Amino acid sequence: MSTATLNADHWVDQKKYLWLLGAPVMLLPIIGYALFELTGLGLFWWFSPLFVYGIIPLADYLIGEDTSNPPETVVPRLEKERYYRYATYLAVPLQYVSLVWGCWAVATLDLAWWAYLGAAVSVGMVSGLAINTGHELGHKTDGFEQWLAKIALASSWYGHFFVEHNRGHHVRVATPEDPASSRMGESFYAFLPRTVFGSLRSAWEIEAKRLQRNGHSVWSIHNNNLQAWSMSLVLFVGLTAYFGWIVLPFLIIQAVYGFSLLEVVNYLEHYGLRRQKLDSGRYERCQPRHSWNSNHTVTNLLLYQLQRHSDHHANPTRSYQALRHFDEAPQLPSGYASMIVLAYVPSLWFRVMDPKVAAHHNGDLTQASLQPGKEAALMARYHQA
Amino acid sequence: MRKWRCMICDFIYDEAKGLPEEGIEPGTKWEDIPDSWTCPDCGASKDDFEMVPID
Question: Which of A17, A164, A230, A363 would you label with A150, given CA atoms 20 to 30 Å apart?
Answer without folding.
Answer: A17
